[in-house]
Amino acid sequence: MTTTASTNDSTTIAITKLYSLGQGKVHYEPHFAQGIGLITLDNPERQNAFSGKMMVEFHEIVVRLEKQDPKDTVAIIVTGAAGKAFCAGLDLTFAQKHLREPGMASHVNHLMHDALSRFSRLPYITVASMAGPALGGGTEMITAFDYVCIASTTFLRFVQTRMGVSSPWEISVNHLSVYDTGGARRLANSLGRKKALFILGSAPKIDANMAKELGLADVIVNTTRGSDAYNACLDASKTFLRGFIFDERTNERVTPGAVRGMKKLIVRADLKEDEAFEASVLQELAGLSKI
C-alpha cells in the first residue's frame, strides 16, 4: 500500500481501511503494445468485481499514471480477466462481509469516485476492452472511458435502481472541486439528459448494437459464443488506437505529447471554457511542433 501527496485525508483513510480487504488483483502492464499500457481487473471467481484491495490497487495505478513520465505512452486499455465479465461492479462477498461496518460504504464510494474521476481526466486516450458484461459499478467505470470496444455477444446494464440505490460512486464525501464528476453526470454530459435518464432509471439490458446506437460503445467486435472474445476485443482496441499512435500516411509515430495535449484540452473543455489553459498546453508543446 502506498499513498502520495496528491491524495487527501479522506482518500488516505479510505485506502488504509480497504487495502487488505477481499480478493483479486489489478495489474498494470506499461508496455502492452507500442504507445499503449494495459490495466487488467483480475478477480475471475467474482466476475472481475471490485474488492476493497482491488479498489486501492486501481486507485494507486491511476495516481501513478498521473505522476509518471509518460515517455511514449499515448493510450491505456482496460480489460477484465479472460473468460469472465468486464466488471460486475462491487464484489458482493466483500460487501456482505465488510460494508456493514460503520462508515465503510462511504470509504468505498469516496475512493472509487476519486479513482474514476482521476481516470477520466488522465492525459491518455482510454479504451474499455469489453469482452464480457459490465454491471452496476462496472457500468459506472464504463462512463469514465473515452471509447469502448464491445463484443457483439455481450451486454451492459446499469442495475443500480434495481438494487435500491442511485449512482453509487457519484458523490465525493468531501467538497466537490471543479474537476469532480460521477458516473451519472459523465453519462448525462456524454449522451444527453434523456438518454442518461432512460439508461439509469429504467435499467434496460443493453446489447452491443443498442450500446453503439445510444453512444455507450464505439466499436462492435464480431464474436460468437465460445470464441476468444477476450483477445478479439484487445486486438480491436489496439487497431482502433492506431490512428492516435501512427500517422496513416507515413506510418511514423505521431508525437505522443501532441496527442496527450489534445486529451488535456478535451478534458478541460468538459469543465468550462478556459483560454488560458489552452494557451498553457500549446506552450508546453511548442518544442515538439513539426511545423
TrEMBL record:
GO annotation terms (biological process): fatty acid beta-oxidation
Keywords in alphabetical order: Lyase
GO molecular-function term, one example from the UniProt record: lyase activity
A single cellular component GO annotation: cytosol
Record-linked Pfam families: ECH_1 (PF00378)
Domain of life, per lineage: Eukaryota
UniProt xrefs under InterPro entries: ClpP/crotonase-like_dom_sf (IPR029045), Enoyl-CoA_hydra/iso (IPR001753)
Protein name from the UniProt record: ClpP/crotonase-like domain-containing protein
Source organism of the structure: Phascolomyces articulosus
